[in-house]
Amino acid sequence: MSKPSKTWQEFEFSGSEGLVLSEPLIFEQTKAGREGFPIAVNEKLPPLSEALPKELDRGDIKGFPELSEPQVARHFTRLSHYNFGVDYGFYPLGSCTMKYNPKVNEYLAALKGFADIHPLQDLDEVQGMLQIAWQLEHWLGEIAGFDRVSLQPAAGAHGEFLGMLLIRAYHESKGELNKRKAVIIPDTAHGTNPATCALAGFDVVPIKSGPCGIIEVDEVKAHLDDTVAAIMVTNPNTLGLFERNLPEIAEVCHGAGALVYGDGANLNALMGYCKQGDLGIDVFHFNLHKTFSTPHGGGGPGAGPVGVKREVIPFLPVPTIERDKNGKFYLDFDRPKSIGTIKCFWGHPLVWIKAYAYMRELGASGLKQVSEMAVLNARYIQKRLQKILRQTCSEPCMHECVFSGADLPNELHTIDLAKRLMDYGFHPMTVYFPLVVPEALMIEPTETEPPEVVESFCAAVERIVEEAKNSPELVHEAPHHTYRRRLDEVLAARKPKLKWETKL
Ligand SMILES: Cc1ncc(COP(=O)(O)O)c(C=O)c1O
To answer: Ligand 1 atom closest to Cα of 289?
Structure first.
């Protein structure tokens, strides 16, 4: 961020409709001696400098801004307006499932009885928490068709990593790890798939999906031999398509001694309609922070539980949550084949509580409806926008749809369309991913958007495509009405400057 040259008195107007203020930073507003609120001096008490232990006295912080309370309140409130979140508007960031999450679940997770639990507390005092975790594991297993679930991983990629370690342990137990080093991953995979696979010590074998983006059985067969440990499949895949050949693929993989890993981060397209375990998947991860009521993003905390079929259960991380014959819950560390512990203190229980509450609120039929609405919204957008944007495949999408901006006129690109959407008050869709589609635009409306929002989003995209034909400079120079215009995104990501550098 460069130092703004303007001050309060020098408002900078930008664009015809919007007002963009270039506001002084908090460090520039400082006035020596100004303070938030005075602490009344009580003569009966010793001065603060004497009352506080010396090691806690930091003295002056050089350059610390000196401001009044309203200045501070306004500064941070204003900054919060610069942000865009799902509580503010439509956020169709494909592959991320940025849906609205009910606030009541945040309230429940913050209840003292949950939030104040200490991980080393006596198990007799936390039977309720253990019951929730145990029940959640069983419901997740039921929803996706797995015999056992571990709640430990902290995110989707972490779940994938655990899944890969479990697959390693499985092959090791059969004495085959030395030869089974390869994992087949299709070109439509989420980027975390090859990353976690490599981190777990496997070699990635990329394969091409078919012309429409669905994995083909013959392509898998062509890469399958006794060096393959597993295939990793995202279903629905990152093109938003159902991997309809999965049962056959699983059969040939199992026949060759390989396991099938399922990336279940897109589960909100399938709940109540299809159990992924029934398709032949052996190890699978859920993204609770996409599907089950924890916001996705901001670096967490999330949860990426892993479900497994019976043969993989012995390798699950310790401790597992068990219930004895008297109905009492306990943690079982005595599992000799376990891969060990994957997360300090066994995971993120407050995320589990939100997922548990969400499931109880919606019930089985409500979860099924979640999937219906997620798919319905995406298919509506697919139908509306396929008239104006290029589609690589006419196959009906599941929870998200992908277009290409390659046909945009006047040398405009996907990035221009995405930036212009911000002027219409929408968060842009995912761009340039999946990599198999040139100039990709990936739109995931989620189930929580009402039809009028979906409709106004489609209308905005239609209008931008019109603008691209008739006034391309408007699109090329967008956004016009945001606090900042186009930033050097590569520089911002690679060399972020997260603090103001004062010249002290
Ligand atoms: C298909 C898919 N797989 C894996 C992940 C990784 O999940 P996380 O971001 O929690 O690590 C995501 C994230 O959105 C995803 O969309």
So the answer is: 10
